[in-house]
Amino acid sequence: MKVAIVGYPNVGKSSLVNRLTESREAVVHESAGVTRDRKELHTEWNGRRLTLVDTGGVDLEETDNLARKIQAQARAALLDADVAVLVVDAKAGVRPGDLDMTDLLRHGRVPVIVAANKVDSVKDIVLAAEFHALGLGDPIPVSAAQGLGTGDLLDRIVEIGPAEADVLAASVDDPIRLALIGRPNVGKSSLVNRFLGDERVIVSDRAGTTRDAIDIPFRFDGRELILVDTAGLRRQSKVDASLEYYMTLRSQRAAERADVALVVCDAAEGVTAQDLRVAEMAMKSGCATAIILNKWDLTAGEDPAVVVGPDQLESERVRVNRKLRLRPRVMTASALTGRHVERILTEAVGLADRRQGRIPTSQLNRFIADVVAQRQPPAGKGANAHNQRLKLLYMTQTGERPPRFAIQVNSHGLVTRDYAYYLENRMRERYRMDGIPLVIDFVERNERRAPERRH
Predict the structure, then answer these.
(1) Distance between CA atoms of residues 82 and 108, nearest Å
(2) pTM
């Protein structure tokens, strides 16, 4: 059952969503207007699965472009919802913005519950009575801060929502989590909308429009995916305000939970040092990674000040391969025109599959034989050097997400960093693992597999 949480700015919608889901997923800040896109969070109450849709604060008197987009997001949430919860500020009383929202909800098709928030003590319960004037039924006094009345609110949601039989069962297959990360204003949200074929998240020329990690389920080529749009990641030295700190933290956590991260860059600027840091952060979290040069439409001559051709693209790829050990693929795209968008999704699905796939032991041992034939392992140093050479005896896969392998060797001390990198790079070439973190453990013969050296 989907429940849209709507209301005037700064009435505590995100705080209430966090309380109802027993999480801290929705960004909460004392500033008004923190939430802009709609964010879906899941919870369960009395055996019923609920999806709470947190929305931006709606002030229908505001007419600027960003405000209109926030309003459109809230309306879209209502169209998709089974129940609407109008959150009001009990301490502020009925305000014109509450009346505007009430008028909007009366024309909708879903049942509405009024949640009078900020009733933080028993003596404040009487404050909720004023909201009978909205004509939407008995208001429920709640406190997102203290938890007062939240059980009553959930009971009412379950009571007036559709019966369990009318709710579609959730898919049992694990969807692929695809996070779009990068610097502010490089077009992450525009790409998300192009992937979905819908204005699902707010896009604005103003940097920092997206302020939370937004999870959006969708299907591509018969596969279940969850797109995660994130706030822009600035250099750490520039992250000072508390709101921006938490936005950055949410983006980093989104990468940690992802199967695949698309690091979105501005094609006109190329892959910057900050883009490389973002990619490194994603790779250290264990997810597969690709780099997307967005806004490629500007490189085709429409803007005479921007010239990025095939030579420059190849230069970017060489630089990325030199700077990033995982050698992620560098691809071009245009969220504006849709160029290469489907190809990016195909690549992302392939990366996720290879990250969780397994390679048969027989193939791995043929691989070992081939790489040894191409380049002999290093020999030991000193008087016995001619009698000591590294031997790769056996290889098998021991884990996935990310892939992990164990190679049995005759001696740990003979493994050099250079030869370990050589093996890793040959594996990426053979099994198309560019951009996928690999762990290779070198296990000495006749000992229990307790890896001491990793690459």
Answers:
(1) 11
(2) 0.57
Main-chain phi, psi angles of 235, to 5 degrees: -60, 145
pLDDT digits (tens, 9 = 90+) for 326-356: 889 999 988 888 888 889 999 999 999 999 9
Name the helix (H) or strand (E) containing 280: helix 273-284
DSSP string, 305-370: T----HHHHHHHHHHHHHH-TT--EEEE--TTT-TTHHHHHHHHHHHHHHHH----HHHHHHHHHH
Task: Compute CA distances 441 → 157, 373, 407, 409, whole Å.
Answer: 52, 21, 6, 10
What pLDDT digit, counting tens, does each position of 268-307 carry? 888 988 889 888 888 888 889 999 998 887 654 444 444 4
DSSP 8-state class, residue 220: E
Let me know: does 439 contact 422? Beta carbons within 8 Å: no
Note the pLDDT tens digit of each residue in 385-431: 555 889 999 999 998 888 999 999 999 889 999 999 999 999 999 99
CA separation for the pair 110, 394 (Å, rounded): 63
Rounded to whole angstroms, how far apart are CA atoms 3 and 41? Answer: 10
CA distances from 125 to 12, 18, 139, 267, 378 (A): 17, 21, 10, 56, 77
Q: Which residues pair with 177 in a beta bridge?
A: 226
Q: Which amino acid is at 409?
A: V
Q: Amino acid identity, residue 97?
A: G
| CB-count exposure of residue 206 (10 Å: 0-12, 13-18, 19+) | exposed
Residue with tokens 């693992």: 433
Hey, which bits of 76-183 come out as E strands? 83-89, 112-117, 140-141, 176-182
The rounded distance, in Å, linking the Cα atoms of 30 and 381 is: 64
Between the alpha carbon of residue 110 and those of residues 77, 82, 153, 286, the distances in Å are 11, 6, 16, 42
Torsion region of 367: left, alpha or beta (phi above 0 gives left; psi -120 to 50 gives alpha): alpha
How many whole angstroms separate alpha carbon 387 and alpha carbon 389? 7
CB-CB contact of 77 with 53 (8 Å): yes
Place of tokens 């290889």: 395
